[in-house]
Amino acid sequence: MGSTANGKTLNLKLRIWRQDGPAAVGSFLDIDADRIPVDASFLEMLDLINERLIEDGVEPITFPHDCREGICGTCGVMINGQAHGPEKATATCQLHMRKFNDGDQIVIEPWRAAAFPVLKDLMVDRRAFDRIIEAGGYISAPTGTPQDANEIPVPKEVADTAMDAAACIGCGACVAACPNSAAQLFTAAKLAHLNVLPQGQPERWKRTEAMVETMEDFFGSCTNHGECHEACPKEISLDFIAFMNRDYIKSKTKNRSLASQ
Amino acid sequence: MVVLDAKIPYGPIAEKWDNHKFSVKLVNPANKRRFDVIVVGTGLAGASAAASLAELGYNVKAFTFHDSPRRAHSIAAQGGINAAKNYRNDGDSVYRLFYDTVKGGDYRSREANVYRLAQVSLNIIDQCAAQGVPFAREYGGLLANRSFGGAQVSRTFYARGQTGQQLLLGAYQALAAQVKAGKVTLYNRSDMLDVVVKDGEACGIITRDMLTGEVHAHSAHAVVLATGGYGNVYYLSTNAMACNVTAAWRAHRKGALFANPCYTQIHPTCIPVSDEFQSKLTLMSESLRNDGRIWVPRQFDDARSAAEIPESERYYYLEEKYPSFGNLVPRDVASRNAKTVVDEGRGVGPLKNGVYLDFAASIARDGVDAVRERYGNLFDMYERITGEDPYKLPMRIYPATHYTMGGLWVDYNLMTTVPGLYCLGEANFSDHGANRLGASALMQGLADGYFVLPYTIGDHLAPKLGDATVPTTDPVFSEALREVDQRTRSWTQVKGTHSVEHYHRELGKIVWEYCGMARNETGLNKALTEIPALREEFRKNVKVLGSPDGVNQQLEKVNRVDDFMEFAELKVRDALHRAESCGGHFREESQTPEGEALRDDENFAYVAAWEWQGPDTDPVLHKEDLAFENVQLTQRSYK
Ligand SMILES: Cc1cc2nc3c(=O)[nH]c(=O)nc-3n(C[C@H](O)[C@H](O)[C@H](O)COP(=O)(O)OP(=O)(O)OC[C@H]3O[C@@H](n4cnc5c(N)ncnc54)[C@H](O)[C@@H]3O)c2cc1C
Ligand code: SF4
Ligand code: FES
Q1: Is B569 exposed, middle or buried (0-12, 13-18, 19+ CB in 10 A)?
Q2: Beta partners for residue A244, in sequence order
Q3: Cross-chain residue pair A154–B159, CB shorter than 8 Å
Q4: Euclidean distance between the first and the last CA atom of chain A, given in angstroms as a whole number
Q5: I need a labelling partner for B437 at 20 to 30 A (CA). Which of B49, B238, B284, B477 fits?
Q6: In this structure, how many other beta carbons lie within 10 angstroms of the beta carbon of residue A13?
Q7: What's the ipTM?
Q8: What is the helix (H) or strand (E) element at residue A137, kind and residue range?
Q9: A20: Cβ contacts below 8 Å, ≥ 6 apart
Q10: Helix (H, G, I), strand (E, B), or coil: what is residue B536?
């Protein structure tokens, strides 16, 4: 494969998880990955490996990806035991091979969590996240009904906090990194986004209760390890989990109209 | 015989939409539940449409090939969304947004549609704010705006550098609420591979379950496509990897006319290609042009680093050529000029394929912190990709394919030439003419989905009250099912020698070379022989491994590349026939003495809508003449 801008390449030893389907037994495939350009992204490295596998008549490795810009949340694999790999605040697709050294061994696995069954090779099913959103991760504002946007002023700090939380890309790294496969960070991010805003107040307690309980139906419980935050490509704050826990307790008060006081 | 009737309503332009809303047929609230509507695509346009139709009471089936609606390509939009709110009191108005959009599109769009777009832009912001989209705010709590892409007013709303993400999440959440309410059935990982037509009307679709490989038939009273643009025909683009033309192309083969496929927007500020193995190009937000200065060395083949080149030997070509707009000229002008200087041999970087975007002056003027505050995220992204620090070295940029203005032809109701088949968002051709203004695609997608289709679809549905949908046991469905299944399975039988990726890359090279930023007759004719030859070789020699009965990413892609191979030919044909330059379509034969795009209004003020005639027959061209009653046609000038 052709010229690279600066000509530097790496020789790597890859161990990649292969699994035919959800019910199949998986195993590692060892590959000597030679001449990997340092300017390639991690996923372009996998593209190259796949091209070579195809040439050899071996079915290429299935891996999830789409935007390759760190925003769609489709990509994500465990790289040497770390969700999204070694670079902080970086999704797998934004990781580049210049972060690795010649001769490195790289173990590549799918997210491991009961709620995220492996579909094939490195691709998992994250639909449980959609179920949490469906449970209440929205503000009911049917099309065409709202007033002029500037009639709902939102203090800048509040808008900024909402945006910090809303930056979650739904990748699932938090769950994959958690020893308990808990989804607190993902759920808290959406709850905080909506619950801090004035528009989010009418459904606040109902939303909190429904989302937290749906989360518990699918995922493990949080024991405050903080691994989720370390793995999160968007550096979603652990403070949102504390906020969610407080809101959940309030959502259980008998007279909810008092919870907001 | 196809007759293009745009169904433009009567009356003065400002009253057309109101007149139309009054005159279209309505389905009464209690009867809406008696209609099934299929929506393919759950990006901004599709998710907003599906949610709004479900809120009205229709039964909606929504399809996406993604694992979740939240992954649609809309998520990647950075800059913002326009609306004529005039919150800044700087002279904006519906009319001005309308005027700017028609002019920006180089007078190749339909006035009535654009005016409606500008009108409903107001409602979009209200709608999204109510959903909790965290738009940027001023300290007083009101919405912030910025000027974008050289607009003379501040009408762009934004959510940090993630506007598309936040708008899409808003629409996705509205959709999720309807899924919960049981009004939308969501089919994820479902690839639509055909549109089904009976007695000339759209009656359903065929999908492939991407987990099991099974094909399924779905029937409905109307089918809505909101499946995005075709930028990946170039292989390298800023689009997400999975963006494709399949849904629109399959509809085209079933009778929907394809309009203006040669119109493509090449965005000026992307990171240049660095390697042969490169899989996609990354956009650096246009806002960078507000502070960065674009230059190349005056000297040809200059091997010195940027720092070694003295000020007097730097060629700030945009500032010199366009003193009044400078670095903020429209996208097409900025892109073409970058190509010119690189082709001349003034390109920079290891492959000499870029131009500098230099922040040294603004860092000196405003300080590093101010620049970091404005562009920190973008600078980090640039460094991650290139390994270079843009605070110290100028960025290198080069144009890349970004957006496609062409698409399925639709009338004022957003209906294609196949009754019952609608098309929204980037997939249709409707509002941007030959060039799209920054921050206007998000606006159009949401306008179509939230505020246009929910009104106009009733016109088609109302007369069908009480009609059952065509049963999926009908021969039109079983025939289509068989064809889709056969086509998909056949790829694993080819057992050729080259990967799907290889052929996609080869196709991209041809289309970029001959139908990219500048086009000419000789090149386009060359492409017209090279593309069919490549297509034939691809069909005989592609190598698809694995089974069709389960997850198979190669198999998903081979269908898409196959459709791109056919589509590319139409695109080139359209570019060849349009012997004028306009917007993003630059024909070298048609330029002013200064090298600017020269329109030919006398001969080309029309929409070119192509009709499929079968695989071995040339398509037929239909023309929708464009009448400009409210905007004076002028030659754009940014000097
Ligand atoms: C990097 C980037 C930045 C941008 N920034 C801006 C900006 O700042 N402002 C602006 O206004 N515009 C911007 N744009 C343009 C804008 O984002 C897009 O034009 C717009 O989001 C398209 O929305 P859509 O709903 O039409 O399509 P998409 O978001 O592409 O959605 C398509 C949907 O269709 C589905 N689909 C497609 N084919 C099939 C099939 N065969 N079967 C099943 N499902 C299918 C997909 O799964 C997806 O759900 C940007 C574009 C890019 C690439
Ligand atoms: S919280 Fe972070 S890690 Fe978890 S899904 Fe969101 S972005 Fe990914
Ligand atoms: S591929 Fe979209 S976030 Fe990585």
Answers
A1: buried
A2: none
A3: no
A4: 65
A5: B49
A6: 14
A7: 0.97
A8: none
A9: A26, A120, B550
A10: helix
Domain ranges of chain A: 9-120, 126-260
Whole-model pTM? 0.97
Q: Please tell me the predicted confidence (pLDDT) of residue B596.
A: 87
Phi-psi region of B301 (alpha: psi -120 to 50; beta: other; left: phi over 0): left
* Nearest ligand to the C-alpha atom of residue B70: 1
Q: How far apart are CA B547 and CA B545, in angstroms?
A: 7
Position A64 pLDDT exceeds 70: yes
Q: Given 1.10.1060.10, 1.10.760.10, 3.40.1280.10, 3.30.450.20, which CATH number is that of A126-260?
A: 1.10.1060.10
Closest residue of B to A136, CA-based? B177
Name the least confident of A224-233, A251-260, B245-254: A251-260
- For residue A1, pLDDT over 50 is answered with no
Is A44 touching B (CB cutoff 8 A)?
yes
Q: Are A82 and A176 in contact (CB under 8 A)?
A: no
3-state secondary structure of B471: coil
Size of chain A, expressed as the number of residues it contains: 261
Where helices occur in B342-474 by DSSP H, the ranges are: 360-366, 368-386, 441-446, 453-461
A232 lines ligand 2 (CB under 6 A): yes
pLDDT tens sequence across B557-579: 999 999 999 999 999 999 999 99
Residue B443 contacts residue B124 (beta carbons within 8 Å): yes
Contact B415, B33 (CB under 8 A): no
pLDDT value, residue B283: 93
Q: For ligand 3, pick from A41, A75, A79 the residue to mutate: most ligand atoms within 8 Å of CB.
A: A75
Q: Which two tokens stand for residue B266?
A: 């090449």
Tokens encoding B630: 């409210």
Cα–Cα distance measured from residue A202 to residue B463, given in angstroms and rounded to the nearest whole number = 40
- Tell me how many degrees the CA angle B26-B28-B33 measures, rounded to the nearest 5: 115
User: Is B384 strand, coil or helix?
Assistant: helix
DSSP H or E run through B107? none
- Residues in chain B closer than 8 A to A126 (CB atoms): 67-68
Q: What are phi and psi of B527, to 5 degrees?
A: -60, -35
Q: Is it true that A9-120 and A126-260 share their CATH fold?
A: no
C-alpha distances out from residue A151 to A28, A146, B128, B189, Å: 58, 10, 13, 40
Instruction: Show residues of chain B in contact with A1, CB under 8 Å.
Output: 276-277
Domains and CATH numbers, chain B: 13-265+403-464 (3.50.50.60), 286-399 (3.90.700.10), 481-606 (1.20.58.100)
DSSP string, A72-109: S-----EETTEET-SSTT--GGG-BGGGS-TT-EEEEE
Q: Which CATH number among 3.40.1080.10, 3.30.300.30, 3.10.20.30, 3.90.110.10 corresponds to the domain A9-120? A: 3.10.20.30
Residue B255 C-alpha, separation from nearest chain A C-alpha, in angstroms: 30
- Alpha-carbon distance of B77 to B134, in angstroms, equals 15
